[in-house]
Every structure is written in structure tokens, then in C-alpha cells.
Design brief:
Structural class: mainly beta
Strand order of the largest sheet: 1-7-4-9-2
Number of helices: 2
Helix content: under 10%
Shape: globular
Bound molecules: dTDP-4-keto-6-deoxyglucose
Number of strands: 10
Strand content: 35-45%
Distance between the termini: 11 Å
Radius of gyration: 15 Å
């Protein structure tokens, strides 16, 4: 099941009296080649992001600051992850419906992705997603 492939991944954390350092390398820390990075920030209280799935995209979400919830659904089962660390994140394989909410103030959601932005890769209709996922 795709939901079983989605998992929390720990990142390297280099602790230093000057501050901590974390890094992400393709295929070493995430199971795909990184082609894009984007981030959600200045998210107002009560806002929800996502509400779609991707046909082929692999992603890795990290709470760079603050916290938020990621609700995932593979058409058969659902799970919720609370992200609140900058040295771990949630890997999402293709064909996962996701909704992101419960953003804390000043939270930043960074996403590393396996491909450039492509609207054709999105499934934005839940019924269509279910039809393809089942
Ligand atoms: C996802 C969640 C976690 C671009 O032009 N380039 C980009 O790389 C992205 C990600 C978005 N956009 C444009 C497309 C829309 O006009 O930015 C606008 C907002 O995108 P969207 O409504 O898809 O944003 P979210 O926060 O609902 O979803 C985003 C990602 O699109 C999606 O892949 O999994 O963050």
C-alpha cells in the first residue's frame, strides 16, 4: 500500500556551539533525486494547504520552523503526522492525497520534490483520485 511507503525520515544533525546544521542529499537522505525546493510560509492561522495528490511526484516535507499536521490518504487508509522538527521530515510517495493544516504561528513548511512544477501531475478532484487509487 502506498501509505506504508510514506514515512518519517531522520536527517543528519551536526551539533555545534554555533548552532546546528542539517543537510539533505539525493538518494542518501531522501529516496529520490531532488529537482525542486519550495516552501510555505506566512501561513495565516486556520489556513489549509494541499487538498490534492500527485501522479508521479515524490516529496519530502520538513517543518523548518514551527509545526503543522500532514493528513495523508492512499484511497484505502489514512494517517496523520505532526511535523515539528527541522532534522526530520515526512516522505510522500506518488498517489497520496494530502491536507496540511494546524500551522503554528511563524511556521515554515519546506518541500523537496523529485520534479519541476507540473500542473498536469496534480489530481485535485478527490473522486478522480479514489478512482485511480483503487
Ligand atoms: C504539495 C503541497 C505540500 C508554482 O508555480 N510552482 C510550484 O513549485 C508550486 C509548488 C506551486 N506553484 C503555484 C501553483 C499555484 O498557482 O503556486 C500556486 C499554489 O500552489 P498550490 O495551490 O498547489 O499550493 P499548496 O500549498 O496547496 O500545495 C503545495 C504543492 O503544490 C503541492 O505539491 O504537495 O504544497
Amino acid at each position: 500500500m502506498p501509505l506504508d511507503d510514506c514515512r518519517l525520515l531522520q536527517l543528519p544533525k551536526i551539533e555545534d556551539r554555533r548552532g546546528n546544521l542539517t543537510f539533505i542529499e539525493s538518494h542518501r537522505h531522501v529516496p529520490f533525486a531532488i529537482e525542486r525546493v519550495y516552501y510555505l510560509y506566512d501561513v495565516p492561522g486556520g489556513a489549509e494547504r494541499g487538498g490534492h495528490a500527485h501522479r508521479n511526484l515524490h516529496q519530502f516535507l520538513v517543518a523548518m520552523s514551527g509545526s503543522f499536521d500532514v493528513k495523508i490518504d492512499d484511497g484505502h487508509r489514512k494517517a496523520t503526522y505532526h511535523l515539528n522538527r527541522s532534522y526530520s521530515g515526512l516522505y510522500l510517495c506518488p498517489m497520496i492525497w494530502r491536507e496540511i493544516d494546524n500551522f503554528s504561528s511563524a511556521s515554515v513548511c519546506m518541500v523537496v520534490a523529485s520534479a519541476p512544477y507540473d500542473e498536469a501531475d496534480y489530481l485535485r478532484d478527490y473522486d478522480e483520485f479514489l478512482r485511480l487509487a483503487r
